[in-house]
Structures are given as C-alpha cells and as structure tokens.
Amino acid sequence: MNFLKPIKFKNFETKNNIFLGPMAGITSYPFRKICLENGCGMVITEMISAQSLARANLKTLAIAKIREDHPVCEQIFGSDELTMKEAAKITQELGADMIEINASCPVKKITKTGAGVALMKTPNLLLNIIEKISSSIKIPLSVKIRTGFIPGDEMAISLAPLIEKAGAAMLHIHLRAASQIHSGPVDYKIAQNIKNKIKIPLIVNGSITDPISAFNMFKNTMADGISIARGSIANPLIFSQIEQYLSNGSYQESDEEKRKELFIRFLELNCKEKGEGKGLITARKYVGFWFKKFRKASYLRTEFMKIKTLKEARELLYNS
Questions:
Q1: Domain spanning 18-248: which CATH class is it, in words?
Q2: Maximum C-alpha span of the chain
Q3: What is the DSSP letter of 168?
Q4: Among 47, 97, 113, 137, which is most buried by a count of CB atoms within 10 Å?
C-alpha cells in the first residue's frame, strides 16, 4: 500500500501528507522554509499566545507573520474562548492557510493557565473554543491533542468525535500521554480506534526519525498523515526521504556535505530575518540536533558558539 497522498481542505490542498510538527522556538519562518523546500507537505508554526496576539503585541505579531511559506498552519494556545476566537481571526488575516488549537502541550507554565493539554481536562471549554473559532473563520481548523494524561487512560478516543462535531477540519495527535512528555513508546492502537470514529483527516506524531519509522507509523495507525518534529531538526531532508521511501521502497541517505549546505541556507534565512548577530545566536539551539552525526560534531558545536559573523560560520562548516 502506498501511504503517500495529498490532503485536500476547503481552501487548499497539500502536496503530500508529511508535515512539520510545531516546536517552540524552532519552527520559525527560516526553518519552515527549509522544510518546505525539501519535501514537506505543510508546516505548523511554533505555538503562539492567543492573549499576546489579541493585545497586538509587536513581538508576537512578528513571530506570527506569514511570509511565502505556504501551506502553513498557525498554532495558537490559550484558555479563554473570546481571546482564542479573536486570535484566530487575526491569524487568518495574517495569511495562515489553517489554524491549530494547542491542546497537547504538557509544559507547566502553559497548563497552569488552563491551556495546552489542560484543555483536555475541561472538554466543554475545549469544544466551545472549537465551535467559536470554526464558526468565525473561513480557513480550516485543526486541534492537536495527546492520548490522555497517563498511559492507558485513552481520553482521546472519546474526545475525537466531539472535536470533529464541534467544527474541526483536522485532528492532530501526539501518540503519547501528557505524563510521557517526549519519551516512551507511542500508542498505535489509540490512533486506530480514533481513525474508525472520525471522518476528518487524522495526523499522527511521535518518534518519527527516519523513513522506516514513518512507514511503520502509517502501517500501524492507518492515519491520513504524519507530522515530524525533533526528527526534522537532525535531518531536514527527512521529508523528501520519506517521500522517496513511500514511493519506491528506498531512499537516498543525506550526506554530511548536503546537511552542511542546508544549515548554511538556514543561517542565511535566519540572519536575513533577525539580523546577523541575533540570527547566529538563535541558530545555536539547532546545532545539537543538526550537527549530531557530523564527523567533527563536538568540535563544530563548540566552535559555532564562538562565531560572530555569517562569513565565519561558512568558513567553519566548509573547512571542517
């Protein structure tokens, strides 16, 4: 079975069903652009505060700004119905192709406000937010959830059809419980059960690090699509490699030189977006993943932290 396919929504169609998952501080415009240039079907932004958007916070509006990185799904978080509705309308005006409600983040500073995965504990509030947003925007709405709060509680199975009924056009699920954060096995069975209960596209996420694990995720869940988060930082070519593997049963490994070229491309975009100094500083959070399999990984990580100019970065990578 060929799992590779486009996904059609009311206002656009993705070229494939391999998406970039949201990551705070990571899935900014430059990284989204790199992923789209290398086989990604749709990118999802880092989570953005609905409250800050509604207050027209300039820093937040800059993060939420949509460039030419389409198709793009803008993820927002919050727990107030009216604020979430207003933020969704602003996001639509900024040019997003889709909006996603974050009901999956387990980080305490988010959940203590009633947002993120805490919304799964208040399903009526979550459903009201979905209804208010979906009825006030013209673009499709996605909701990202977890399987539940602890392994085995399977809250997502009963919640999924209610999310669809409330107006969501896509369900995006991290196949781990909130208590697992990013570790432990993913729960394929929950995805299978949800798939049998909803008609909207189901996108699954968790521990996809290469084309083989992507194929296994499709095979074991029968989901409509997958999203890749941390696995894409280590290898932004993973999207095109998964495309190759699902189409032909084989794929071309990414060599170190190609990944260095991609990192330089990312740095150029990041520096253009943020200015050279800030662009290089904010790129530091990527190098632990991106340089991981380089021959001189430790040396490159250490030296990159010292560089002051894009010229120095190019020299470091091309001469090592």
A1: alpha beta
A2: 57
A3: -
A4: 47
